[in-house]
Batch of 2 targets.
Target 1
Amino acid sequence: MEFTTETVSGVTIVTLLGETLDASNAKALKTDLVPVLAPGAKLVFDMKALRFVDSSGLGALLSCLRQVHSSGGDLKLCEMAKTVRALFELVRMHRIFEIYSSREEALRSYGAEV
Amino acid sequence: MEPAESRTTNHQTEPQVFPPALLELIEFFHQRLAGEPFGSSLRVTAGVLVPGSSLPAGAVPVDLAAGHQAWVCLSALTSDSWAAGALQALARGWGEVYSASGREVLLMEELAVDWESLQALYDLSADLQSALKPEEMLKRILGRAISNDPSLRAVLLVQHNGVLSARAMQNLDVCENLNPAGGLVGRCVSEQRSLVLQGQHQIAAAGTNSEPTSREPWNGATSLALVPITTAARGLFGLLAVWRYDQALGFDSYFVRLLEALGQQAALIVESDRLNRTLLESERLRQEIFIGSLIQQLLLVGAPPKESARLEVATLALPSQTVDGDFVDLFAHPDGTLDVLIGDVMGKGIPAALLGAATKTHILRALAEKALEMPSGETPSPEDIINCASAAIGPDLVTLERFVTLCYARIDPAARRVTLVDCGHPSALQYRARTGEVLPLRGDGLPLGVLLSERYRQIEAELEPGDLLLLYSDGVTEAHNAQRELYGEERLTATLRMCSGLGAAGLLDRIRTRVLAFCGDEKLGDDFTCLALKIRADGAEPASEITILSSYTDLEQMRTWAAATLGSEAPSELCDEIRLALTEAVVNIIRHGYREEPGHPIRIRAGHHARSLVFYVEDWAGEWDMASIPQPSFEGDLEGGFGVFIVRSIFEDVVLTRSEDGSNVLQLSKSRKL
């Protein structure tokens, strides 16, 4: 899946551009995101384009979260569609990820000036 | 000077046999295979086979001198079984020809002292390249052996089917076949060395104790030289004998060496000739198959599928090694019905193929004749057509002592009905999309040409959108593997059930792959002919099932289908949940059932129930257990294992069963909230 990155006040915003994150592209995304997951990185994944995520896609996001946590960084999610949010709630991952409704809220949670 | 010498020494210790031998090898193969059918595209590659290493794909091993081995392969022809056969035959031939020519070189070196003998051998080597017939060349070899001396007689005996028979003679009219175990021949063969004998008494006393079965041609000779010819590949090849009656002039050892060299030349010619014949034979066979399949394609099964908005049609014909009389035809009627015909003439060969074509013509004529008798716009019934055709062709078939099995089916997509006449043909199979069952459509008619008084009757069955009809010849069910096990109707039924969602052409493609995989190296004994028809869903109602292949990239297609099945009135949350749960179920099958091997079918079918939503997800991955998938962790420390949990959360009822034909059916149900 294609994604773009930008840095705002020391926070890296990754905008995922695909509509689907499932078993067909989860592994590739995990690999492609490796350079972004620098030690201590403060990350926000903007998920507004995503319309469908399955458990494999969720697994890829979890893997990113664990990697970032282990190096003292953090990963927050924002702009999640209702259908995707439903999956997170179903498997209770809304308790593991910090999920914000907007990009600004996510940035503010890092103490960044918006 | 010293370095030059040491270089020479090095060259001698390094086996220099390889490069020139490999070039020769390539030339040998190329000469015999170039031209039709390979044309200029043929590439022959060869290399030294290092002990312990494996052969490159598609290559055959060949022997070189001194126990060394090489490999040879042909470019891009590995799929052509004829090319593979030719390659094998040439590899064997090379062994024989090469070992013979190797000996010839050694003998020539030994004989270099004798200019005349050497000259004779070079002349003959030149002959070998010429276009002389082998019998002519062998005769010349014998001519050299006796130096055209009219007092000398010579015979070349070649072993074939356990006897030695004369292949060429000089100054001799007849020579009976000889037993290689008896008489003087027996001694020469068992001792594997040349015999030079002088004087009638010595010749008479030299034979083995066992009597020769026939009279040896040199009986009464005063001098005799008898030389065994052996080749590495065949052992004893034959014998070369030269003798005289009148004078006590003996043969010296040079003469014997010359005979041995000539014997090798003879072996070279005979083996080379045999090899060329083998190649010609396989070429002839290939031509016949080609002509046969041409007839088949043009006359018998070449009818283009007639597609319509309501029907999807595909045909498949794989000709066997021999020509069969399988035929297929399709007739579209103005009222939107489609008639399909599949038949098989008893017997093989071009006569059977022509009879198949004649039967087709008779049926077409019967259709036209009957149609003229009908009020306009009406189509004659299948039973009327077949009874009319049977009356026309039956007497001819009885005279020829041939019969024809066939199945004539009319598909009416508007009335959702198939009407079929079965004349002793393998039962058509119907896949019913609604239930997922496969039913045989079996009539009780006799084959055409068995009984002239036979009255054919049609049977009817309902057809629904999504249903598939498969008509086939017995070449499909009677295809067998090396253990002589038949593919059978049961396997065919299972394949139809498994691949019904792939459409008519997709189904036939899977049948072909599966039958060929089942047969392994066994050749198809019979023509393999299939016709598949799928009733397309009306535009208004979505297909009640879909078959995808075990690849994650097919998931999106399945989700699109699921959304269409649920319809636009379904609440979007429900639609999202179903799409997610089905994705999880299918991903588990791909990952844990098929272990991410691509190309296996997974079928998802929607059930029709008023109060609940039911989906059946079916796979053929063998027995695999959902319970073996680890439980998920909700603490975020595991990345997987949510799939089964998600499926169970969304569907209230999850039941996994194993069907009779060995598939796993995951039944997922959820009550409809009203």
Note: The two ends of chain B are 106 Å apart (CA to CA).
Target 2
Amino acid sequence: MEHIKVVVHLLINGDAHDLAIAPEATLSEVLRGQLGLTGTKDGCGTGECGACTVLADGRPILSCLTLAFECQGREITTIEGVACNGELNPVQQAFIDAGAIQCGFCTPGMVLATIALLNETPHPSFAEIEKALEGVLCRCTGYNKIVEAVNRAAEAIAARLKGGTSCQTP
Amino acid sequence: MSDPLKYVGQPIARVDGPAKVTGKARFTVDVQPPGTLVCRILRSPHPHARILGIDISAAQKLPGVKAVVTADDTLKIKHGFVETPRYPADQYPLAVGVVRHVGEEIAAVAAVDEHTAEAALKLIKVEYEILPAVFDPEEAMKADAPEVHPSHPKVTEPFRNIAGKTETGWGDVDQGLAESDYVRTDRFESHLRTHGYLEPQATVASWEDGKLNVWTSSMGPFIKRKKLAQTLGLPLSAVRVHKSYVGGAFGGKIDLFSHEFCAALLSMKTGRPVKVVVSREEIFAAYRHGQPLIVELTTGVKKDGSIVAQRIRTINNCGAYKGSGVVVIFLSWGFAMATYRIPNMAYEGFAVYTNNTVRCPQRGHGAPQMRFAIESQMDMIAEEIGLDPVAIRLVNARLPDEQLPNGDNVHNCGLVECIEKAAERINLRERYGSSRNKAAEGGSLRRGVGIGVSAYFGGSLIYPNSSSVIVKLNDDGSLIILTGSLDIGQGAETILTQIVAEELQVPISQISIMAADTETTPVDIGVWISGNAYVTGNAAREAAMAVRHKILEIAAQELETETCQLVLSEKAVSVTGAPERRMSYAEIYEASVRSRRGDPIIGEGHWRTMRDVPTHPSLATAKGRWTENYAFDAQAAEVEVDIETGKARLVRAVTAHDCGFPINPLNVDGQIDGQVSMALGHAFLEEVMMENGRTLNPSWLEYRMPTIGEMALSESIDVITESYVVGQPYRTKEVGEGYVSAILAAIANALYDAVGVRLYTTPFTPERILKALKEKAQADSGNA
């Protein structure tokens, strides 16, 4: 079958890409299929599980429901782009330390949603955590340790800001 | 007094954490060899039909289609979750002549992309003759019901569609009931739930030079290799299942699935890699879910609450093929007898074919359904005879070293302590009954507390029956573990690393683990029989021990002392009391290669549960031993009910657990939290709604799994009954699926405590709660 392609200019994790894509290609398809950034997970393809969450200009979006075409001119951050100079982002570290990871399939989406939350709300209440993460399903943890990870990450970021750091979280 | 444990028993962060948190962990859905074709599967739209003809010619001609297969392209070899002489394999990978449930696989396509594969499916013409269908198990048992399959030849009752029957018992139940001071009979029903694994079912197969390479989202590479080889007519050695991380399974990824077979067959046909990722809608509508059980329960007790006799009848709606339906009716008996002493018992369980989707194991595999029934009735009996829920359980709870009717022993059973501690933590004795139907502040919210208990087996004998592990010393003193075990989220890689670290005193960071590859790692029982920590863990310990022996022998020889004078610490061996007489593992490696004909120090270890027992017990009679590791728990729940809306929620869960010895307390807590969450979904939210074999809610929008908004407080209390001593075998118990059951019962009991209504059917939806409240109000006013 013949497929029409369009060329898009995408900025992913700070790298510029010119890509020929199908106009109906979703961001998750382009990230996973064309760029090999398979850290972005697709659990349902219909925007229900949130595993595909990535950041667009720092705000969480569902990459399975977003056309890649629409992402031109926006800074996209995926899970591959949140560690800095080989050092884990404090949110990533907090998820490991708190035991907030089991199967790991929701983890990229959870971590990115948490990063977006903490950028806007450095010391979130439980209600704010609940609101920020309610769109990302986790079947393994019951969410208890994810909440703990978010709180630990908030503390770690606060401590790091106090100490001064060269790494910027997205 | 031995040295304190440094790695085992510690809350060590999972070793696959960095890979998973950076997106580097490769799941099956991420495997994409160059030139991979896309596979899609044609499924039956009918619950029961004869296939009169399949025309694939138009699909084959579509540009971009590389192969189309139907049953005629297969060897027509059946497979089944159970394959025993009594219960032989009963399902073809692609339907032969008849389809028996909506979604049954008929044909598969490999094409250059998804659009083409989907288009090709639409071009396949199937001519059906619709057959009568049956969906309710009790309807299906009737003599005039449509026949899904003939009843099992050894079942003597005049029922139709009986896939299998378990019948067992002891003592004299009729006499026991006659001698009881109080007897009651109740019927409980549970509903259809699904696993909800986040990673969809997915398989990549690549046939290269006579070898089938497979990556598949599974619960054990060796069982998949066996079933693929069997159905494809290949020798085991021609199939290699590679490791990929698994995005959750919960029982739902054990069986051979047709998509795995089809990807393999299509790769063999085309000579190209073939990938299939099953859509979420297909998983909901066509795949295997858990097992709804009907439980009819008669129990007789003495005045003190002690059980005299129990009669149990279960009916399992097992779907269009046996799946694990004949296992659930056996296990349900086990879940009934393990917790309480029952002097007289009669049990019968029927697995009944219907034209529903096939069922498979689901975390707990019958235990939530059975414990919901027994523990609900326990509270009803307690109330009738004037006991509190704790007292009646303590009277009946099994004590250490009790022998079970099947020859198993509960060993260091901590059930009594679990009950006492869970009750105490939630203050159950004082609170139970005290606030029933009372609003704290005059509003519509009511709160109640309840308790339940459960027991779960681990590491039983099922193919391949044993686990082996290899530990290799590197020339820098670090270690490599080779294991066939698979991390599906439960932390298998982490706990095996901890055990090897402890035995050899090598830091976690200095141990790498190669897992779950049928060619490069040794055989493993798989992560679906709750035996990883015990069976594979002991194999890892034995392998590390073998390395330890060699290290000590060489060090004794080089340091001119006895092995009993040596201590291991931080990748080195030193002489007790003379730390300067020391050899690093790197030096020991070098000495071994030099003095022992090149031996680089490799250890192997093997473990099999119950080594004197030849095989698993009879599913039909329950005779024969099942496990040497029963985990016990008591769980308490605090539930809030809004009597205006009928909406109920789990506020707080307390789990007092005897998991033996927690090798990683952080993982244990994580398993408990996850099971509490799954149970609250079971209790309040989740139901696969089916009508005439079709799924009405095939998405997560319509099938509500708990979100962070439903999170309950989850507290755990360790009741430690076993110990871990370096150099000795250990007996630990499972934590991965036993804690999804008692909490469900505790929720049901807490709901009763809150509002005084008893629900006999799950889930506890607002509609059911309101209806029960209304009926209660009518009854109360009638009595007034």
Note: Residues 466-607 of chain B form a domain with the Aldehyde Oxidoreductase; domain 4 fold (CATH 3.30.365.10).
